[in-house]
User: Fold these one by one.
Assistant:
Number 1:
Amino acid sequence: MSDVSPAAEALLAAFDETQLAEMLAAASARIKRVRQLHRNEYESCAECTHESSVPFPCATIRALNGEPS
């Protein structure tokens, strides 16, 4: 791994595939919960709309989708 620093290489070596798979599963579950909260309800974000309407997709969903804010 000549393209990473020794510290990064040591960090990568400390993880095994099972730990990485568990981290991925946990992160995916969190993202799914956020998407369930920030859902499209009548063209507004169900979570962000309180006092005034926030158009869907909201900034949170755009960020999860990798879109510019």
Number 2:
Amino acid sequence: MNANNFRLPARRLATVAAATALAAGPASLAHATEDQGRASAVVLRTGLNVSLLNKSVNVPLAVALNEVQAPQSAEQTALTAKLDGVDGGKPFTVLGAEVAEAKATVAEGRAEASTTLAHAKLHVPGLPLLSLIEVEQVTSKATCVAGEKPVASANLLGSVTALGKKVTLTPSGPVVVKVPAVGEVRLALSQTETTTRTAAATALELTVSVNPLDLNVAEVEGTVTLAKATCEAPAVQGAPPASPAPASDVKPQGAPAEAGLAETGGGSMTPYLAGGALALLAAGAGAVALARRGKN
């Protein structure tokens, strides 16, 4: 009777310990991710919709070039982004550049991201010969150091051409370029934002509405982001963990044709998942030992 009465609490103990370990796992993982900081960078991200044949066919054009994320230090330098299925079945080059770099690092209380894009031409379906935009060089950088104020910067170096027209951009506000029978592009220059622990910088943000020759052969609408960097500072040693940061940008739905264009990162969760498994094993072993004592 005594053995049976003791065995039941032992089993309950094992169940409670396992449940506690499972519940604590995600929380511990979240705190660990926040503590070490985060950084991300992307050279190009498109959120466009291409309408063909008088809007009878809609094709989302979602491409990311050189998108990287840390805690894992990462770097990408692919120079072109291509998309299949929007140009008569042939690969369509969305962006070509001489330099296209994105870096993200998190180490020793510091999270940092940066991008550089130089001598780049961006095209959309329906305008194979006319660039949507051409830039000589744009850069962005975000730096977040534990216990310090984050810093964000974005720079436009050299000229910008939109729909064949040279554009002069100023920090005072966006510029709209309109071309009859082609469409319009709205350009916003050098956007930066900082909080107590985060920073974000975008070199160029474009809002696009293109309908070549008003023939409804290919109508393109949406947004394009060039050279974006973000970071979140690691927690100060000894400070209580901060509440979770707001969700970041939605990831692109489409996938670039080249393997080098895919996003990297995500493996940093593995050690914490392994730690949760060890906690479960330890809890089970303790409960079994306690049950055996009850038998003796």
